[in-house]
Amino acid sequence: MGETVAGSCRPLTAIETHGKQIPWVDIDRLIRDWRPARMIVGLPRHLDGRESPLGTEVRAFAETLGRRHDRPVELWNEALSTEAARNELIHRRSPEGRRTDRRQLNAAAAHQILSGWILEHPHG
């Protein structure tokens, strides 16, 4: 969840997926509860800028999400977001507690993606 006026964002929660099944009930609930003006979806790209093979599926998801909730959806390059999130989580922990679970990592990666978008779009 982010706020462009304040230039801040924070992770809300990570939604568990099971295979390729999209957890629409959980997504719909978050959108209904938080009523975002727009939604940002991470688009997987290689370091050279080429879209990864998952790009087609992500684009289809983003299109469905926008239609389903009648809100704009923007795609944002998510290259290195997971690695940046992992490094952030490691640096916040003591050496003994460096393990992170997948939910924490996904939430932190989403935070990285949204932070990048907010930096480039300070006025929404």
Walk me through this protein's architecture.
The chain is mainly alpha-helical and 124 residues long. The protein folds into two domains: 21-79, Nucleotidyltransferase, domain 5 (2-Layer Sandwich); 82-124. The chain is built from four helices and four strands. The chain has helices at residues 24-34, 55-69, 81-92, 102-120, and strands at residues 2-3, 8-9, 39-43, 73-77. Helix 3 packs across helix 4. The two termini are 13 Å apart.
What's the structural blueprint in terms of helices and strands?
Layout: E1 2-3, E2 8-9, H1 24-34, E3 39-43, H2 55-69, E4 73-77, H3 81-92, H4 102-120
Parallel strand pairs: 3-4
Antiparallel strand pairs: 1-2
Strand order of the largest sheet: 1-2
Q: Which strand-content bin applies to the residues? A: 5-15%
Query: What is the CATH-assigned architecture of the largest domain?
Result: 2-Layer Sandwich
CATH homologous superfamily caption of the largest domain = YqgF/RNase H-like domain
Mean pLDDT: 86
Cα gyration radius (Å): 15 Å
Q: Count of DSSP E strands? A: 4
Distance between the termini: 13 Å
Helix/sheet category: mainly alpha
* Spatial shape: globular
Number of helices: 4
The CATH topology of the largest domain is Nucleotidyltransferase, domain 5
What percent of the residues sit in helical stretches (DSSP H or I)? 40-55%
SSE run:
EEHEHEHH
Compute the number of structural domains. Answer: 2
Please mark out the parts with pLDDT under 50 across 5 or more consecutive residues, or reply none. Answer: none
The biggest beta sheet reads: 2 strands, antiparallel
